[in-house]
Amino acid sequence: MEAPSWAPPPVDVVGKPTLSETPLLELRGITKSFGSVQALTDVDFEVRDGEVMALVGDNGAGKSTLIKCIAGIHTADHGEISFDGQPVHIHGPKDSAKLGIEVVYQDLALCDNLDVVQNMYLGRELRDWLFRLKEAPMEQRTAETLKSLAVTTIRSIRQPVASLSGGQRQSVAVAKAVQWNSRLVILDEPTAALGVAQTEQVLALVKRLAERGLAVVLISHNLHDIFEVATRITVLRLGRDIGVYEREKTTQQEVVQAITAGVPTKVSGIPEPAGATP
Amino acid sequence: MTEAQVEIVGQDAPTAAVEEEAPRSLVGRAIDNVRTGNLGILPIVIGLAIIIVFFSFKATNFFTANNFNNIVIQLAGTCMLAFGVVFVLLLGEIDLSIGYLSGLAAVAVAELQLPGTGQDAPFSWIAPVNGLLAIVIAVAIAGALGAAQGTIVAKIGVPSFVVTLAGLLIFQGVILQILEVRGTILIQDHWINDTAYYYFSKEAGWIIAAIVSGLYAAFAIVHVLAQRRAGLAVRAPYMLLAKVVGLAIACFGVVAICNHATVPRGLPLAGVLVIIFLVVLTYVAKRTTFGRHVYAVGGNAEAARRAGINVARIRILVFVISGAMAGVGGIILAANVNSVDLNVGGGTLLLNAIAAAVIGGVSLFGGRGEVRGALLGSLVIVTVSNGLNTAGYKAGVIYVITGIILLLAVTLDTVARRLQVRSGR
């Protein structure tokens, strides 16, 4: 069988890939305003292959706007975006999907009345010349993708998503995002509505994505979760980026301070982005 | 439906509390389903059986081959409309215009076949046309009107209830306007009348039964082979076998009953048309990307939109299906009385069609239900009214009983859903 376009990305869990040198996605000086409201002011942001970059900030800090600029739902007023070292222009969701950027929205990703396989292939169903759905390969691929992500608690992939737990639903949504050869997965509050055990389940999945070499952006209000999985943490406050913190060299207290008070303490050991404000 | 277990390779998932369940027997699974409120078509089939047994004792000439053929003819028109209603309800929309839309299609077909057209007829420049062509044009008109309504719903965002309520009034007005002077148009074209009055010969009936059951068996085999090739488990193989055998028995049984009838002898074409549309529309709903997207939009329109589905296009196409099926049903209903008059498309037709789909288990809130539900639901409605008629009751009683059945069906469905929620499914 030739390698079909729907093949999942190669599974590479052997050994931890080291962080690559150049960022996969790099945003420089992003500015966005809605009328008189300045949502983002000169924001720098980057994420590398194989890392979990957390994006934190209080309500209204500009997290969603920044994500929407990456996803192509909004277009930035000023600023440069480069992907894989190449400058790119993202003008719509299709542009970002073409680059391999997938966004998992908090609660808008799945159709409850459809089963797991149907949701995984929603909008990209495999079909033959009669518009007939090719159920068998879709089911097979879904099982393989879930298996490769070690999503193990779903009993049947032919049960409606409505019957799954919150953690399982989130796992399906994430699996749906990563099965299309995506390189950057953005998770918007993936653990917001979950219990303790299910949160663990989703966080374990997030770690595995990074281990596979994908770049992951994680938006969350829960610092405990972030300190469990993130490699680095970008803090936004009132539409400006306060700084990038390396998880292993910072404390929750420091991050909280940055979120609430906006103390611009760049942590040593992180290369200062060129042209960043001192 | 708890098959195709995902292979378990528990890595470090902390909640790998996987309950490995032994594959359950058919009976065990059925009990499971009933306990968790996943009733399927079971209640409606039981209900139908009770209705049939009841009227068989109540009315002497109810349980006869002749009356079976009557029921099929009475069923066909409403059932066609109900097929369209299923798609609209799957989206979580409603189409109130189908009653008079079917009437409009009937008027169109009557005008088109009219020999020696009068001055005031809308199709005088083209009529008379061949009956088959007339049917195609009438269905196309109904589909186009459905498309117009669907476009207003999907593109502008006016609620479908309002758009199709306006459609109901407008189409009724157009019918009254066209038929105002003449009152009634007789339909003499044999193609059109055949949709309600053609009966297959005994031999043709047997051949049709053989073809239908043969095709179903062939598709079942193809399905099994495809699953095998993909290395997937065949879901409930015995169930599949039972379905193939059951369908064959049902086909030959129906033909046997029809052939046994004396007054209209043989298998009615209308019944075959119902089955053809049932198969085609079930295929569209369950086996094509379009059908999958209809369920998706009905389940979560925003998720569907974000998955790249053109939601507006799906909505418009569904209203086209609804309109076209109303057209087909309207023509059969008109053929049934060989004419159209000022009441065409009115009365309880619209509400019966919607009730049929709802009794058949199609949710009013979208995303849940199947095409076959429309057939089962209209079978219930038509059997009840036929039975009450045969037993000598008046129209009032028929309405009351139909209403009670509708209420029972929806209540049962609501209770079943609550059970589903409680059992965490």
Task: Provide an overview of this structure.
Chain A has helices at 63-71, 93-99, 116-120, 135-148, 166-178, 196-211, 223-229, 252-261; strands spanning 25-34, 37-47, 52-56, 78-83, 86-88, 101-104, 184-188, 215-219, 232-237, 240-246. In chain A, the strands form two sheets. Chain A has a six-stranded mixed sheet with strand order 6-7-8-3-9-10, sandwiched between helices. In chain A, α5 (166-178) runs parallel beside α6. Residues 1-17 and 265-278 of chain A have low confidence and may be disordered. Chain A is α/β, with parallel strands linked by helices and 278 residues long. In chain A, β4 (78-83) and β5 (86-88) form a beta hairpin. Chain B has 425 residues and is an all-alpha fold. Chain B has one domain (40-198, 268-422): Orthogonal Bundle (ABC transporter involved in vitamin B12 uptake, BtuC). Chain B is 70% helix and 1% strand. A two-stranded antiparallel ribbon of chain B has the order 1-2. In chain B, α3 (65-90) packs antiparallel against α13, α3 packs across α14 and α15 (371-390) packs antiparallel against α16. The radius of gyration of chain B is 23 Å and the shape is globular. The interface between A and B is large, with 47 and 49 residues.
